[in-house]
Fold this protein.
Amino acid sequence: MSPQTRHLPAATLSASTSPARVRRLADGWWLAVAFRPLFFAAALQAAAAVPLWVWIYTAGVAEVAGLPAMTWHAHEMVFGFLPPIMAGYLLSATPNWSGRLPTAGRPLALLVGLWLAGRLVPLVAPLPLALAADAAFPLAVSALLIREMRLGRSGQSRHGLMLFPVLAVAALAHRLLGDDPAMAATMARTGIAVAALLIAAVGGRLVPSLTRNALAGRGAERVPAPYGRFDIFVLLATSVALPAWVLAPDALFSAALLAAAGLLQLARLLRWRGWLLRRGDILALHAGYAWLVAGLLLAALSALPQSGVPADSALHALTAGAIGSMTLAVMSRLTTTRGPGDHAGQRLCLIALAAVNAGALLRISAPLSAEHYLHLIGSGALLWSFAYLLFALAQTRQFRADRRG
């Protein structure tokens, strides 16, 4: 008998009890799998942090948590928001690599507590304590993922396992170098590039696979081609372009590399035939990937002085657009398919996906309209954060549905 089940009543462990049900009874629904509490925490942060940033920006607050206000905003939305989502996804998937049970129960609760401490302690503590609190969660998750990678079987894709430690190091450097605007911006772009590469790597397998299944189920004659050499070439091109953008976002060679990567990613997206779909949850994944294409192409244009495309629009196409919409699409799918069905929760997720894309579009449009800049930022922030609030509400509905089940 496993440690997770030895203290359960004998009547609970009947022959008809599934392993998944036993795990939920032992650890509690929220702590039975990593994505539930970590996605919920990230969603609540997104729902609160963006409207708070709009207030800080309009009120002229100069410093937050020992960092310049703009640097704090970047830190929270890149290194506060991204790690729990990546960790929730990767730690839930670790049995695919190692064959071990995923992180759950008290160790998972401790991870959530470390993440929360990293968001709250820096608001009141001096730099050494703030750095320690902020670093605890990404370093702990990195250690878990490195262990899983060592135990993993050959042939498994490990993009996320390798990229998360890079995100952790960038988070530490961003906190340490926050007083240097140029270095802080470089570290923030590093975190964004890690997320974009993960979207390209994991999304590049997930999106066509789900699309192929959906189209084949309808009897469609033309479906996405299997993963092959073209996909590897596109990933390599993107893996070169994004570091160039991190180090030299205004250079002409970066513009050329980003344009090439963006066009290749566009060709890749078109090969998946998303326009044939009728399912909103899978269409949302295509939309998230389209934001990656837009972000790469806008970043290329923003490096050209005569293009008129602000770097701010390109940056937020990758963050509010690609990261915001793709992570929400993946989280929504996991939440609504890994557990009891709840139609109201699924509808909330679909509304949230529409809202997050609309909010991203407004935010990216803001730098192009000086007259309506603040109105567009405020409206975009409210829609974007409202989307994550709806997702958090959908998670609570799944919890109630499981309790009823």
User: Anything to note?
Assistant: The mean pLDDT is 85. The radius of gyration is 21 Å. The chain is about 75% helix and 0% strand.
